[in-house]
């Protein structure tokens, strides 16, 4: 795993996953988490030569922002963000110490707050919540490249 903080240089990895992790302990970490995602995807494209669409860059930053915000808002203590490229997608993983699983509320255009997970699930290829020995881990995948035909890649229609 490549452990580099925001603004730190990430060396190319050979025969290893392309990944970065960081711990966030306060609300200021949300902007840092978005910056880390942006810098990581820039490295994925520039250093590793993998295509990253503008859509994917925006969606990963959105997913990171929503998941880190929820972890900081609803859980005491730090959260751990890991970004890893696997099979043409970036896996966004956020661990926090709370055993309480998140609730995804039904769509309600009159509700003012709590749309974050609803949005994350709509823009991601996959979404899962895993209980951990301590706390939980939320993992969401965003496809890195758009379809050559121009369609945005993402959650498959059922």
Gist of the model:
The chain is of the alpha+beta class and 158 residues long. The chain has 3 helices and 5 strands.
Please provide a written account of the structure.
- With 158 residues, the chain is of the alpha+beta class.
- The chain contains 3 helices and 5 strands; from the N terminus they run βααββαββ.
- A 5-stranded antiparallel beta sheet has the order 1-2-3-5-4, with helices on one face.
- Strand 4 (126-131) and strand 5 (136-143) form a beta hairpin.
- The protein is globular and about 40 Å long.
Gap between N and C termini: 34 Å
User: Which structural category fits the helices and strands?
Assistant: alpha+beta
- Mean pLDDT reading: 83
What is the string of SSEs from the N terminus onward?
EHHEEHEE
For this entry, give a set of tags.
158 residues; alpha+beta; 5-stranded antiparallel beta sheet; 3 helices; 5 strands
Indicate the topology.
Layout: E1 18-24, H1 29-46, H2 54-74, E2 79-86, E3 89-96, H3 116-123, E4 126-131, E5 136-143
Antiparallel strand pairs: 1-2, 2-3, 3-5, 4-5
Helix pairs in contact: 1-2, 2-3
């Amino acid at each position: 795993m490549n452990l580099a903080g925001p603004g730190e240089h990430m060396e190319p990895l050979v025969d290893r996953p392309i990944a970065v992790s960081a711990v966030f302990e306060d609300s200021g970490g949300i902007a840092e988490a978005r910056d880390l995602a942006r810098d990581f995807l820039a490295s994925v494209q520039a250093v590793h030569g993998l295509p990253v669409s503008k859509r994917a860059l925006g969606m990963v930053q959105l997913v990171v922002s929503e998941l880190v915000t929820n972890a900081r808002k609803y859980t005491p203590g730090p959260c751990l963000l890991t970004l890893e490229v696997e099979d043409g997608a970036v896996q966004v993983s956020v661990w926090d110490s709370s055993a309480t699983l998140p609730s995804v509320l039904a769509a309600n255009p009159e509700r003012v707050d709590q749309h974050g997970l609803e949005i994350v699930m709509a823009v991601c290829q996959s979404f899962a919540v895993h209980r951990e020995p301590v706390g939980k881990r939320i993992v969401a995948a965003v496809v890195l490249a758009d379809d050559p035909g121009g369609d945005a890649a993402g959650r498959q229609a059922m």
